[in-house]
Design brief:
Elements (H helix, E strand, L loop, with lengths): L3 E13 L4 E3 L4 E2 L3 E18 L6 E4 L2 E2 L2 H18 L4 E9 L9 H15 L6 H11 L11 E5 L8 E6 L7 E5 L10 H11 L3 H20 L3 H20 L10 H15 L5 E4 L5 E5 L4 H8 L8 E4 L6 E4 L1
Helix pairs in contact: 1-2, 2-3, 5-6
The structure holds ligand 2P0.
């Protein structure tokens, strides 16, 4: 019998962002990053290696992926085959548990779950640090989704030294995110291509790396001190600097829509009125509001002027990866 292994990984949102590779082959980032893993959004993936298969079969939300889309996943399975000695092709079924068309479906939870299920199904028993290194080869942000709570990805200088570890888990204080899910628009450029362009063309890139490293130090302290205000201010500034790289690339690009700016303004206004809330943005139009649980009602009420209730999703700190064998 072929073993089927299922892994569940939660997505994460970076508070100090990864936005550029130093080594695209090994997926080494230009700077370290810090994230919060979320409970609400996750991917569940099952992998079975099977000598009856003539090629990898990848099902995504019950749909068989066409070869062009399956290629990145198959290449990642090749890496697992190469390391494990496993020679068979695999059947992969993956389900993304995010609200329909939320635009939050991230490669982070996807490649973290695939690394865990795939490596175990191939007969490897990796520890969490090795899993984090392996997930990195699928997608940078997946490096962090192996772990729960607040997580830091150390940039490192080679395959061995570039991995994530827990900064704080469980998170025993009142911090959460409200995802403001905006209308899906066609992404102007993928994360992979966008970050490659800014590294190659933004004149501000060296300043980004310098300030991001400073942000890492300050963010570690804010998390250890459970200081929501410091954490939020560092995250907000760091996110805007990341987006400033995109605006300063050649050619320039951005992920904002008019609704993105509306949500940013709402958060800024709430804060001016004394509510402890902050925003962060990734490679898409959605805004994530960093806040305390006890402010949920007041924040939702302010945003209800612009957005429908189902566009506002509260997410708490979430757990690390789980793996089950059948
Ligand atoms: C992050 N993002 O730190 C940053 C902030 C989006 C904005 O990592 O090329 O899918 O697969 O390593 O990880 C999204 O990019 O890119 C991302 P690849 P990835 O979360």
């Amino acid at each position: 019998m072929n073993t089927t292994v299922t892994a569940k990984a939660h997505t994460n949102i970076a508070l100090v962002k990864y936005w550029g590779k130093k080594d695209p082959q090994l997926m080494l980032p230009q700077n370290g990053s810090i994230s919060l893993t979320l409970d609400h959004f996750y991917t569940e993936t099952s992998v079975t290696f099977d000598d009856q298969l003539a090629h990898d079969q990848i099902y995504f939300n019950d749909q068989l992926l066409q070869p062009a889309k399956a290629q990145r996943i198959s290449q990642f399975l090749d890496l697992i085959r190469q390391r494990s000695g496993q020679t068979h092709f695999a059947r992969v079924t993956t389900g993304n548990h995010v609200p329909t068309s939320a635009g939050l479906a991230s490669s982070a939870s996807g490649f973290a779950a695939l690394a865990a299920a795939g490596s175990r199904a191939a007969g490897m028993h990796l520890d969490l640090t090795d899993l984090s290194r392996l997930a990195r080869r699928g997608s940078g942000s997946a490096t962090r989704s192996i772990f729960g709570g607040f997580v830091e990805w150390h940039a490192g200088h080679d395959d061995q030294s570039s991995y994530a570890e827990v900064l704080q888990d469980p998170v025993d204080w009142d911090v959460q995110m409200i995802a403001v899910v905006l209308k899906a628009t066609k992404k102007p450029i993928s994360s992979t291509d966008g970050m490659a362009r800014v590294v190659a063309t933004s004149p501000y890139y060296p300043a980004w790396v310098q300030t991001a490293n400073h942000d890492l130090d300050r963010m570690r302290h804010a998390i250890a001190a459970k200081d929501l205000h410091a954490l939020g201010m560092i995250a907000e500034t760091n996110a805007m600097r990341m987006h400033a790289l995109n605006l300063s690339a050649d050619p320039a690009f951005n992920y904002f829509t008019a609704d993105t700016l509306t949500a940013i303004q709402a958060v800024t206004d709430l804060r001016a009125n004394g509510v402890n809330c902050y925003y962060t943005l990734d490679a898409g139009p959605n805004v994530k509001i960093i806040c305390a649980g006890h402010d949920t009602a007041v924040i939702k009420a302010a945003l209800a002027k612009h957005f429908a209730p189902e566009q506002l999703i509260v997410a708490k700190p979430g757990p690390g990866i789980t793996i089950t064998e059948a």
